[in-house]
Amino acid sequence: MSQTKLITFSKQELRYNTRYLRDVILPQVIQGGFNYLSGHSINRLSEFLQKLEVSKVTVHMLSYSRIHNALEEICNSHRHWSLEIVKNAQHILSEWEENLGPLSLIQSNLWEPGGRMEGCCKTSTEKYDGANAEKEEGQLARHRSSSRWIVKSADPTNAYVFGHNGFQVGQWWIKQAAAFRDGIIDNSTNDITHDSINAYAIVLKGTLNEIDDKGGGTIYYHSSNKTKGVFRVMHNLVNRRSVRILRTSKLGSKFAPACGVRYDGLYRISGHSVKLRCHENQDEDNMEYVFELKREPGQPSMKEAMRHPMSDELDDWKEYQAINAKGKGWVCSLAK
Question: By the number of CB atoms within 10 A of the CB, which of 33, 121, 134, 181 ranks highest?
């Protein structure tokens, strides 16, 4: 009797197929039903599930790829799929549960080597505020708290490179600190990445005017004379150098990612204007700088970039938020 030959998938192959299932196939099926799929897509899916049934996977591979989440989503939306596809998915999940334990306990190792938050730690510092201490008996004294990111082994000079600097349009991070760690920007909090001469990247995360030209191709970036690096951006206008643009979920734009930070490609500074901002309650006035940035041609479209965060990236974001809410592990508390 011949034995079934085991199929070997790499964790990268599993992640690729997971994204295909969750971000391409599943939305089509939910929208139009299983028969909405092309014959090629159905054959590709059936062949993949057949191979998955006889493949050997580990908890680490599932944690990295989230393929079990894709199969669970097929089972949860079973009314939209063919009976054969659903039975295959259920059988695979049952086998994995028996061999690997409860799949619901599988988590992404965000701070482990290779994890999305590796080397990134947020410190929380509390200081006793004697001036505002409560006077009533039994009340605790007030404390002032502040926090900052510590990024292990990050080198700001890695970001002082023009162009994509080895990064892919659409690349995504949970927090700006992780983007700093990888070298696309030179800090974990400020907007502008710059050296003493040029600007190399801008993180968009606040009030911003963007022209809707059906492609995210024109940006009006607002800053003040107090913004670190603003005059380096002006120098880029003179030397015609592009900057890398990253958008955050805090940005007031329809092109912002649903969560986290995303690299959206190269933009060239095409013009700027300056105006005086007067503040009644401040001793000094600020100069407001408005830069017009045009997206460079010949790179992946904004439509492609906006596919991120993908389903597995959203999984990691939700897990990060859950850990954040519980205050576990990710915060290094320093009391003073």
Answer: 181
